[in-house]
Amino acid sequence: MTNTISVIETDISFPCETGQTVLDAAEAAGWAIPYSCRKGVCDSCIGDLIAGEITVPQQGVALGPASGIRLCRARPIANVQIKPRRINARTPPVRKRLVTTVYRRRRVAPSVTVLDLRFPIGRRTPFHAGQFLNVVLDDGDTRSYSFANSPQHNDLAQLHVRHKPQGVFSARILQQLEFHDTVQIEAPFGEFGVDEADTPIVLMATGTGFAPMRSIILDHIARRLTRPIHLYWGGRTLDDLYLADSVGRLARCYPWLTFTPVLSRPDATWTGKAGWVQNAVLADYPDLDDAEVYACGSPQMTQCALDTLTRERDLDPTRFRADAFVSAVPEHSPT
Predict the structure, then answer these.
(1) Which of 16, 141, 238, 301 could form a Cys-Cys staple with 297, CB 3.0–4.6 A?
(2) Model's pTM, two decimal places?
(3) Is 86:97 a contact under the CB 8 Å cutoff?
(4) Does residue 262 share a domain with residue 210?
């Protein structure tokens, strides 16, 4: 049975097959709705059900009108009307599942490993800066990590993996991987990325939320763009900013790039910004009228940043994009 999904206040409508989620149906029809984890854990894809009937796994049936619906999990069982936060025309994604090989594994901080994966010879996976891939585990479950390399080098994937004490991938599998071991991945996923415009870009990251920001910056360099980018990268201590030296070198080479490290628990020798990344942005920007802001980190950070910047600097919420990585069971989602 095929149902129809309509987007209120637009002329957008598209079919949805039985068992298909709203997010999957939109993608298949060439429409992009923001999402991050695709597992119903983060809030990136939340929208409103205006009318109709849906079912959500482990939650049951919901009737419209209803707010706070995770569109990555909602499956229509009748024709429905929805109101997503944002929907844009986008070519349906072409995803590939590949068996990659470990090229290099580096422990760059006590709790972070950089993993470089090579694709099979002659195979490439086009992606946009800001997107992520899924590592496919032996039982078919997945763990999501952002591409940290540039889209121009799409015959490989660099992942920044934070170690979790109970993490299936980070605590058990990653530590055993050796040169030329294989890792199955599927890519690309995600709608987090920089729009084409001339306005300044403010990037806000905490921890391994730096990974997609690195991809965005390297893409900027490869395309010889000069659009201003200001990266704020926050961590508790300097160890959390595991590639700060390399970012600093890039900032010295490219006048359009500004880098501000921010520590929430600095020691007595620290002379840079201290506190939260969103407060550092407030201190530097009396207004954000012309800026676009992109944030990647915990859901608490991204939500607090949105609340703070829209309240204190009247930032238009449509100019704020977030990729929230979240704790899943038993591991985290993107980045």
Answers:
(1) 301
(2) 0.85
(3) no
(4) yes
